Amino acid sequence: MEAVAEGLWGLADYHENKGEIGKAVKCLEAICQSHVSFLPIIEVKTRLRISTLLLKHTHNVNHAKSHLERSQLLLKAIPSCFELKCRTFSLLSQCYHLVGAIPPQKLILYKALDLTSSASQDVAVKLWSCNFNSQLANAFIIEGDYQSSISALQSGYVCATEISYPDLQMFFATAILHVHLMQWDDENSVLRSINQCDRVWESIDPNRRGQCLGLLFYNELLHIFYRLRICDYKNAAHHVDNLDAAMKADKQKMQEIQQLSSELDALNQSLSRPDLPSRERSALAGRQAKLQQRLRSLEDSSLTGKEFLEPSYFGNARQAWGDKLVLAPSPMDGEWLPKSAVYALVDLMVVILGRPKGLFKECMQRIQSGMQTIQDALLKLGITDGVREVDLQHSAIWMAGVYLMLLMQFLENKVAVELTRSGFVEAQEALVQMKNWFIRFPTILQACESMIEMLRGQYAHSVGCYSEAAFHYVEAAK
């Protein structure tokens, strides 16, 4: 029966490589639904594979969850299989997160941490412990339990320190800073966390830092948020310049990779011709080798997450290679936000710092750039003109909320710029867009309602409608 399972696994690989995910899942489910029993480990591996496919390529989280829950039951009777158990715990935790079942998620993560604490404390075990502590911290954040979240992240930091992984230490240091910035109950704690991030970043080998693009963006953005919070715009500008330069360099690199890949595809097609003269074939083969070498050097210059098996924590796994800003090594998938959202944030930071200086032309260019990036991302999430909040899949709500909130921030800045330079028609159009988005997604954008009323008040005040402005300010205060 093992040969049958291997055959069906191979067939599933074939269909997945062709993008036929439904057929791949059917091949694998044939093993689970067979009247003849397979070995429990074969069934567990198959169910894990099905769950990974479903989470990566579909919104069918409940189907994936049922396979993982069955795998967990099967693994209870097997004393070994540490890696399989950890993968099952990790994926099941993510499923509970995606359906909003936080208490079961925490329970499964506590079981996972118990498993790692009782295992031999080698590097692989420590890495899994880091994975589970990271997910547990995220669950605590959703419940608003900041202190427990920081404790879980500090446990992860200790594990990373014990195995001497500076970039993993940096991941936990920045995550701790992120929680402190959200909580902000003690400015001294925030400052200590900032200093810790600086120390850990400096401890990473300079050559290695170039491969940690996700950490660079995450760390610099958190530093900017801190500087903006304390109104230190001068020092914030330095971090924005760093981010802008890194973003432009990465865009240029990804464009070169795309061009090289296209050229390589054309070369491969030419080399497949049977009637190609030997001299021409030799020249093309030489060119092919050079292209492949250049492509490998570009791909190896950053941590892209190409080798990661786990889908991301927020249901955002369906991304092409190169679209992930990975923060931590496998088995973690420490992506904070998709690359497109991070790029939009960089544009937004440039706008926020450029507006007070009167750099309106550059601000409007960045607003248009950021809004286009967000619109493209919303389309990929299935959010077209007719889609409303009630139409969204639960697993897409969090990521849709990220992009929609960013979109509202860009529109807010657009209104502010247009009112400053007396572009009343353009300001009114942006306000109408904000109101329409709010009507379609009232729960996700609930926090923007006051901001919209304030902007409407500012618009009314700018055009001399003072009683109407007062009305909107009162509404904003409510």
UniProtKB/TrEMBL annotation:
Keyword Transcription regulation: no
GO cellular component: nucleus
Signal sequence interval, chain numbering: none
Highest rank taxon of the organism: Eukaryota
Subcellular location: Nucleus
Positions in coiled-coil regions: 240-270
Keyword Cell division listed: yes
BP terms from Gene Ontology: cell division; chromosome segregation; mitotic sister chromatid cohesion
InterPro entries given in the database record: MAU2
Keywords: Cell cycle, Cell division, Chromosome partition, Coiled coil, Mitosis, Nucleus
Protein family: Belongs to the SCC4/mau-2 family.
Protein name per the record: MAU2 chromatid cohesion factor homolog
Organism: Citrus sinensis
